[in-house]
Amino acid sequence: IFLVLAAAAAFWLRDLEPLRQEMERRASAALDMPVTIGHAGIRFLPQPAIALDRIAIGHPAILSIGRLDVGADFVPLLSRRIENAAITISNTRLELPLPASVPLERLFASEGGSTRQAPPYEDRGQHDPLNTSGGTFAIVSVHTIALDDVQVASRGRELALTAESSLAGDLLSISRFTARSGKTALEASGQVSLAPRIAATID
Fold this sequence. Notes:
Structural class: alpha+beta
């Protein structure tokens, strides 16, 4: 049964190239800077997921994401709906300080603590690759967010970050956060409220 379902999903989601291109376009417009995605694909084990590889933001890139995995419940994924998402960001590098031209508020800000909706698809007489059966390809809900091998570089120094967290509404609960630089390591946990303004409580 699993093989049949996997084959059906692979057929339904087989052509992700238009989706990759549209994600690039919308992200570039939202951030007002170039965004490129090297590859978009799907995997089924250990959990159905959309995998984005070689993401670069800015030119030259100020943020390079080697891999972005978005795991999701299987059935909604067939309709290109991501529910109970498990997001893992790995092999990533952020260059600091950010240039003055970088719209920092667009990189991290949200409206009312919720994810911004993508702008409407411009009607150019083309099929919207993010649209299926009258609906929109979207992340409906996020359950966990993890960082794996995230490097923050600034003036010749590097900080390695890993983290595990869960998101419930506007509350981000961090179960584990580790920052390492050379022989120095910092471990923490806590909660971050995302609305009406960002506020953190760290243990």
